[in-house]
């Protein structure tokens, strides 16, 4: 969760680190509670603020763009632990460790540093109730319901206290990351959440390893705060984004462009009715054809639907040999795809928030990192180590 403010006539971004990460105290402020995306006016470069019963470290950065869910010990990032979920993720093809590997690569390449990244706050139950029913959120504490949502049958045997701490909690942080990325994009023009994109979850249920509807949550917060009037979702994950399509299918404020393989999960025909522009691709779709489809359809959508924000669900499960995507795109195509999307948004002066979404190959992390590096080299984004 990120808070936007102004300091010395510059837009800056603020972010909480978890209370358990505090190692020293610079300044203690009065006890205050800060809601999502609240505007505040700090004067210090490093301050402490009270939240959820504990003091949490807050840093002020001049350039804070990448949002990443990380584990920190004594201010050192432990990248290899990012995304581990008590082994639950090993029972599903989803590569839950890719987020940490992307972060580690970008840091090794001296493109980002600890000081130029943000860790969001964990989405609270009150936050999640903006996008979900109370009945659904409560049902996640039934092992069998959660096992069905994440498609891991053995999860039925895992105690709720464990799944909440080592799995659901991490998913809630990624929801906070999506909210933060959208807020940053509006202020800075772009942002990347190294996680999120749980496009199969909707108001009353989840599926396909997607527990919380982070895209719907972010948009509903932005709409309720009147920070945007219209938004465009471009979903380039190989799977149909049936979650946000069910949530916003009849909402004229949201345009959904979904380029997906209709021959694979979720086969949600009802949700298909909510797609504003549907583009079908398959195993025979070449790199060249795919890029033409993306460029032509997004260009038309941005021209016809003048929006305030683009949420880019940039799944990498469309890579060749991905076990679930059923497509055959090269890594170079994915890098080029992301460049096309960012360039079109730049040309239309539209803020963009990128989410990494699905990807079931070990090489997905490297492809994502190379894509972000390419965006930086093409001056479509600006990274700072």
Keywords:
repressor; 385 residues; disordered N terminus; EC 3.5.1.98; Arginase, Chain A; 11 helices; four-stranded antiparallel beta sheet; hydrolase; 14 strands; alpha/beta; 34% helix; single chain
Describe the structure.
There is one protein chain. The chain is of the alpha/beta class. The protein folds into 2 domains: 2-62, no CATH class; 81-377, 3-Layer(aba) Sandwich (Arginase, Chain A), CATH 3.40.800. The protein has 11 helices and 14 strands. It has an 8-stranded parallel beta sheet, sandwiched between helices. Strand 3 and strand 4 form a beta hairpin. InterPro entries: HDAC_classIV (IPR044150), HDACs (IPR000286), His_deacetylse_dom (IPR023801), His_deacetylse_dom_sf (IPR037138), Ureohydrolase_dom_sf (IPR023696). Its EC number is 3.5.1.98. It is found in: Nucleus.
Give a short synopsis of this structure:
This protein folds into two domains: 2-62, no CATH class; 81-377, 3-Layer(aba) Sandwich (Arginase, Chain A), CATH 3.40.800.20. The protein has eleven helices and 14 strands.
Topology, pairings included?
Layout: E1 2-7, E2 10-16, E3 46-51, E4 54-61, E5 66-67, E6 72-73, E7 76-77, H1 98-108, E8 117-118, H2 125-128, H3 134-139, H4 143-150, H5 160-188, E9 190-193, H6 214-224, E10 231-235, H7 242-248, E11 254-260, H8 269-272, E12 277-280, H9 287-304, E13 309-313, H10 331-347, E14 352-355, H11 364-377
Helix pairs in contact: 1-11, 5-6, 9-10, 10-11
GO molecular function, one term: histone deacetylase activity, hydrolytic mechanism
EC number: 3.5.1.98
Subcellular location: Nucleus
